[in-house]
Write a structure and sequence with these properties.
DNA_S_mod_DndB, disordered N terminus, DNA sulfur modification protein DndB, alpha/beta, DGQHR-contain_dom, two-stranded parallel ribbon, 2 domains, 16 helices
Length: 370
């Protein structure tokens, strides 16, 4: 069975499955990675947006995706590319009736133009990865091909394919990421602690008003990155021990956290009335903790240093203390500037010196108040 009359000249021939969507034919096939840069081209980025079928590339994303492939040749995963082809194609079914009428070969003239509707960053990353590891060229990626019906249809396909695309919550990415060491450290710290395991939301990065959790896994991940910066050469187990011991010590001096776990007060009330379980404060505590760990690995010394945490007024209603630092207009804010100022305040309350960037932020904040 052929969808079009056979073309003349040189051709690509792919194994394919034919399907119907919205009354139109489409084909699912596989393509060697080495052919991807040759087949799939970008719209001219000099064209105005209304004359393109794709968005411009965010070139900063490409090295990261390529590195992921090159560094994980035995376990990387790529989802299918979606493309339109603007030529007369020929589909020849294997025959025999039934499902075999949907399986066959797809012949496409080499003069055809392929436009990626979804996956242009993966395409660019494949090209870069092949430069680093040419052996990847014989591996394959799935392609979903639609027959091109013009620029307007391609633009609509791009809009439709991205209409409901939602990035997964950072917390569940940390939960499922087994490549990133900091994700693994955070999971071990949380899951081996009865205290933090009981109070940490592992799927969502936003806590509902009635959630009985105080922290999100994503917030603790960011806090641990700050806490263990510069300790990358330490063994994995040692970093886990340091992080676990540090956060256990911090919890000793924030009594509301223990009250939530003991069901003496609800997590929602604490999140509403206090600021210490919010991501910006956890991140700040991680940055402060990094200095504490750099000074001493003696946990007895941490106790003396961190004890003043119990004397800080963490109430959100204390606008004199937190407005302009952890809060902006009465709402918690985690901008880079807010993080510097919140960390600087906690350091001062603990009697710790301020690094240069926090001192500059503190000086500017003080001048603004006066």
């Amino acid at each position: 069975m052929s969808t079009k009359s056979r073309s003349t000249g040189f051709e690509y021939v792919f194994p394919a499955i034919r399907g119907i969507q919205a009354g139109r034919e489409y084909f699912v096939t596989m393509c060697p990675l080495r052919l991807i840069p040759r087949l799939f081209l970008f719209d001219d980025e000099e064209l105005v947006p209304e004359m393109r079928a794709q968005r411009t590339l965010n070139k900063a994303r490409i090295p990261e995706i390529a590195r992921y492939v090159v560094e994980n040749p035995d376990s990387y995963v790529f989802s299918a590319l979606t493309a339109s082809v603007d030529a007369d194609v020929v589909f020849e079914a294997f025959g025999g009736g039934g499902p075999n009428d949907r399986v066959g070969t797809l012949t496409i003239p080499m003069s055809a133009k392929f436009v990626i509707n979804d996956g242009q960053h993966r395409r660019a990353a494949i090209q870069q990865a092949l430069g680093d590891n040419p052996e990847l060229g014989d591996e394959t990626i799935a392609i979903v091909m639609f027959l091109d019906v013009g620029l307007k249809r391609c633009q609509q396909m791009f809009a439709d394919l991205n209409r409901y695309a939602i990035r997964p919550a950072k917390s569940i990415s940390v939960l499922y990421d087994h490549r990133d060491e900091m994700s693994a450290i955070t999971r071990v710290v949380v899951f081996t602690s009865d205290f933090y395991n009981d109070l940490t939301e592992t799927e969502s990065s936003n806590l509902a008003a009635r959630s009985r959790k105080l922290f999100t896994l994503s917030a603790l991940y960011s806090a641990n990155r700050a806490l263990l910066e510069g300790f990358e050469e330490e063994p994995f187990d040692k970093r886990v021990d340091l992080a676990r011991a540090y956060w256990d010590t911090v919890a000793r001096y924030i009594p509301e956290w223990s009250q939530v776990r003991a069901r003496e007060v609800s997590a929602g009330e604490v999140r509403r009335d206090f600021i210490h379980s919010h991501g910006i404060v956890l991140h700040s505590l991680g940055k402060v903790g990094n200095s504490v760990l750099q000074q001493s690995r003696d946990k007895r010394g941490w106790v003396r240093t961190l004890k003043p945490l119990a004397d800080i007024d963490w109430h959100r209603s204390n606008s004199t203390l937190w407005e302009g630092r952890a809060m902006s207009g009465g709402r918690v804010s985690k901008s880079a500037g807010n993080l510097l100022l919140t960390t600087a305040l906690i350091r001062q309350k603990l009697g710790l010196p301020l690094p240069a960037d926090e001192q500059r932020a503190e000086d500017a904040f003080t001048r603004g108040e006066s």
